[in-house]
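Aim 2 progress update. The chain analyzed this quarter is reproduced below.
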Amino acid sequence: MPLVTVPIVDILSATPRSRLVRFDLRGQPLSFAPGQAVMVGAHAQTERRPYSIASSPEQTLETGCLELLVSVENDGSLGANFGSAARDTLVDVEGPIGGFTLPTHARDSWLLFVAGGAGIAPLRAMLDHVLRAGPAYRPSLLYSARRADEFAFIDELRAHSDAGLLELHQTVTRDDSPSWTGRRGRVGQAHFEALLHEPAATLCFVCGPDAFVKESVATITALGVPEVQIRTDSWGR
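Predicted structure tokens:
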């Protein structure tokens, strides 16, 4: 796999528990498909770990920057893979890796994206790519987070929704604040019924913690989406 050494150019607060880390590719080629990941490690460090790419190929080409959504560690850092995690810190990026991608020629116009927490990262890349394709697809997003302030990219996603480009549904699982007026509770049948307009003709992409993905897939399948039309990406949290 190609390996490039690139500097961190921005570390932005995405949520209280995550940061959007931007790397300047400095004109170096990094070809990837929406939904794929890269292996990241501090410069000259042998250990690397995977992170989903949060920017679409089109966004990355336009800005010259690669974006990752990175969870904050218990000590408040981004972990050893990002070195000092300051502007101009050099990081080695290897990849791309992973098969959690959009089909090259999707026959289904209905697309359902299901995100649990930081699982929004690769789905954001997919959504940007799909929306640039125009009205050929009808995407919807079910996004679950613990609290109302933990929805990454939410302003961007709501802008797509307000423009009529995306059907957006959110739910919180641990937020009792009266300021939140949206849905509450773990994703379940009622959430999916509101978004699955033609189950047999819907292509689904689910990303999040293992239990979240497993439960979502079981529900989607029970509602009539064929297993061959469900793509997943999960991790043990």
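The chain is about 20% helix and 35% strand. The radius of gyration is 18 Å. These observations will guide the mutagenesis experiments scheduled for the next reporting period.
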